[in-house]
Structures are given as C-alpha cells and as structure tokens.
Amino acid sequence: MTKRTKEILALLDEKYSREYKCYLNHETAWQLLIATILSAQCTDARVNIVTKDLFQKYDSIEKFANAELSKLEQDIKTTGFYHNKAKNIILCCRKLLDEYQGEVPRTIEELTSLAGVGRKTANVIRGNIYHEPSIVVDTHVKRISKRLGFTKEEDPEKIEYELMKVLPKEHWILYNIQIITFGRNICYARSPKCEECFMQKYCTEYKGINRKHQGKNEE
C-alpha cells in the first residue's frame, strides 16, 4: 500500500470512524438480499420505506416465493424497474428454497447464480452478513474511486479488482461504508462540495479545476 493510499484511508477513518453499518434496514440475511435487489437504481431511503411494510406482508422466504407477480409488482412499484425486480425476487426465493434449504449462500459463485443478483449485491451479502472482505462497487464507489485516482475503469467488476489490489483487505468493507457517506454528503456526482472537501489534496478532478483556473489567470 502506498503512502498516498494510507493517508486517504487515515482521513476517511478520522472523518467517518471505523464503525460498520448497513444503510438498508433488515433483520435477516434474506431480507438484506431482497432489499439489495430492490436498491438497484433506487435510493436506500426509498427501499427502507418500501420494505417496512413489505417485510410485514411477506414475512418469510416462502411467502415471497409464492407471491402473485402482479401484487408483488405493486408492492415494490416505487423502487422502479418493478417488473424485473418482482420476477427476480420470486425466482431468487424459489431457488433459495429448492437448492439452499432457505439459507442465503455465502460464496460469490452461489450468490450470483440467484436471479437478480450481480457482484454488487453478492458482495453486500458477503460483507454485511458473513463479514467476508468484499468491495461493493456502487455509483459512489465508482465515481469517487476514479476521482481519487484509484482506477480509470468504467466496468464495475474491473473497478472491484483494481480496488482489491490498491486497498488492504481489512479496509475493503470500511471503504464501501465510508465512501458512500462521503458521496452522499460532499462528493456529489454533480456540483460536489469541493471547497468543503477534506480530500482536495488527493482529488484528480479538483487539481484539474485548479489547473484550468491557473491557466486562465496566466492568460
């Protein structure tokens, strides 16, 4: 790990602590799995509003597996892409019952074999449920890792592998949590709060902005 990477991680630890937290409300592994499927192209806050009633109505994997598609679609409609999400949730829960005795598996291969589960969702489960070192590449992690110069890739899986090389394994889950908080509070996709940012020194885009301004002043 480079001196620069150590300094970035130390700043994140200082600002956001080393506390492990999950932004999706859940009580069981299968609830987190469903909540994460719902979170695709949707905010965690919206998912938490939906799952508050959803997990009372469907309080077991069996109820999701046997759900009527049209009714489940209406129950999750406000999370967006509800046709695909409802179909995937039903298929996912049926496979959990048929092949895994109702238990959520822990390996990346088993998890990604479930309907609606990609590497991002699989790594959320591995990190939060099984405490396996994992990197979740969501929109915040993708955007900010590029701004910090950790990657130039666009593909989430390639970014995941690059971050695994750059970051120490014991910081993988923490990095996810800290960067999501950082992205929600300061480093927005549009109009980030650059002047308030404690990462100015390490941000490739902020340096670029400074160089542009410097060039204009010199003219």
UniProtKB/TrEMBL annotation:
InterPro entries: DNA_glycosylase, Endonuclease3_FeS-loop_motif, Endouclease-III_FeS-bd_BS, HhH-GPD_domain, HhH_base_excis_C, HhH_motif, Nth. GO terms for molecular function: 4 iron, 4 sulfur cluster binding; class I DNA-(apurinic or apyrimidinic site) endonuclease activity; DNA binding; DNA N-glycosylase activity; metal ion binding. PROSITE patterns: ENDONUCLEASE_III_1. Its EC number is 4.2.99.18. Binds 1 [4Fe-4S] cluster. HAMAP family: Nth. This is Endonuclease III. It comes from Lachnotalea glycerini. The lineage of its organism: Bacteria, Bacillati, Bacillota, Clostridia, Lachnospirales. The gene is nth.
